[in-house]
Specification:
Order of helices and strands: EEEEEEHHEHEHEHEHEHEHHHHHEEE
Oligomer: single chain
Bound molecules: zinc ion
Mean pLDDT: 95
Low-confidence stretches: none
């Protein structure tokens, strides 16, 4: 007996950018078993999708489940203990799922607690999206997010940290290729992770079947990551040694030619900038270019898109003033940066899945994980339909139903 049937729904084929239907979607054991033209009459629980639109669940490619997304996430994290941190992460996971995010990629977390959370969510004891995790990012001693425990100075340490985290459930690797606003004592405009270690990290990730991405504010860090063979980049802020952002076309072309994908986290930058302007401060006194950097992300995303660099949607949820239900703002920000509506939708579904090597999700397709949203309007015509999904289905289970 199937697990669930969604009847008479219009299906959004995000890959083709088309709606078709009505169809009946048959779900069994958490996967899509059939997409049929006629309903089957039996005892299976069913949802009436008449007049509604089914699209794949959203993938948020950049989150931090253990940060609270408030006005001072790092201070709150540091002041908390394991139980408090887990509570924050559980609440974040629940909030993301209710907003229609069925998969997150966490790019910076305490590895032991992440392992606990992944087990809870995986076994159904906590509600949340599927979690792809990097665990602790690799960073230089004292580097960006060093407090998660990923400090490395030698290739042997790089290997050891990646292999240990792999055994704890990490399926991707994150390298901090430059400093970050959040971590005092680091400079976002400086490439502070050695090329040699980055190359080792990429090789060890490949060998362990893990994906790898690099946090890059500095233009020099972007270039180093490309040279190391890394094909996914976060933020991509084009910071110059002067401490100011400036889009560099040559580096942009290199990015394009390498085949890399960028996760520019535009909306989170805009949110943090608004917070800092309101409160009259930045991350900390040393980070002089913070506002400029955060506000440049939209124009830089537009430049990258213009060059043909693929973009994926990451909310950076957990960071300053960025809660877990705003990946929709990133999809809208990419659209504002010139990305067509259908492509903006793919940036959080099929294309994101492809670039993150998640081969069984991101589309409504037979054999795929049954992660989907039911919407009141066609998101290919109106992205705001994403703001309030009527129902959220995760692995065939209806986890939110506001119909
Ligand atoms: Zn981040």
């Amino acid at each position: 007996v199937p697990q669930l049937i969604v009847r008479d729904v219009t299906v959004i084929d995000v890959a083709a950018g088309q709606a078709f239907g009505p169809r009946t979607i048959v779900i069994r054991d958490g996967r899509i078993e059939a997409i049929a033209t006629t309903g089957t009459a039996n005892d299976t629980p069913s949802l009436d999708g008449a007049g509604l639109f089914a699209m794949p669940g959203l993938i948020d490619a950049h989150v931090h489940l253990f940060f609270d997304g408030g006005a001072a996430p790092l201070s709150m994290y540091k002041a908390s203990n394991d139980q408090g941190r887990l509570t924050t992460a559980r609440q974040n996971a629940e909030r993301a799922l209710s907003a229609g995010v069925t998969t997150v990629r966490d790019l910076g977390a305490p590895p032991d607690l992440m392992s606990v959370l992944q087990n809870e969510v995986g076994s159904g004891r906590s509600r949340g999206p599927h979690i792809v995790s990097s665990g602790a990012p690799l960073t230089r001693p004292g580097g960006h997010c060093h407090f998660f425990g990923g400090e490395v100075t030698t290739s042997a340490e790089v290997r050891e940290v990646i292999e240990r985290q792999s055994s704890q459930g990490a399926t991707c690797v994150k390298v901090m290729a430059s400093g970050g606003g959040m971590t005092a004592g680091t400079r976002p405009s400086e490439a502070d992770f050695p090329l040699e270690l980055m190359t080792t990290a990429r090789e060890v990730a490949d060998m362990n079947g893990m994906t790898i991405t690099a946090h890059c504010h500095a233009t020099a860090a972007i270039n180093r990551a490309i040279s190391a063979g890394i094909r996914c980049l976060e933020h991509v802020s084009f910071m110059e040694p002067s401490g100011h952002p400036r889009f560099d076309r040559e580096t942009g072309m290199r990015l394009k030619e390498s085949g890399a994908v960028a996760c520019p986290t535009v909306a989170s930058g805009q949110r943090a900038a608004r917070l800092f302007r309101r409160e009259g401060h930045g991350y900390h006194a040393d980070d002089i270019g913070a506002l400029e950097r955060l506000e440049a992300r939209g124009p830089i995303a537009a430049e990258l898109h213009g060059l043909g660099v693929p973009l994926i949607a990451g909310s950076d949820a957990g960071s300053d003033d960025t809660p877990f239900d705003v990946v929709i703002e990133e999809i809208e920000a990419l659209h504002e940066a010139g990305v067509a509506r259908s492509e903006a939708l793919r940036s959080a579904t099929s294309e994101s899945a492809r670039h993150l090597s998640l081969r069984d999700r991101g589309e409504i397709k037979v054999g795929y994980v049954a992660d989907m949203l039911l919407l009141a309007a066609d998101p290919l015509r109106d992205l705001t339909a994403l703001r309030s999904p009527l129902a959220v289905i995760r692995s065939g289970e209806v986890v939110a139903d506001g119909r």
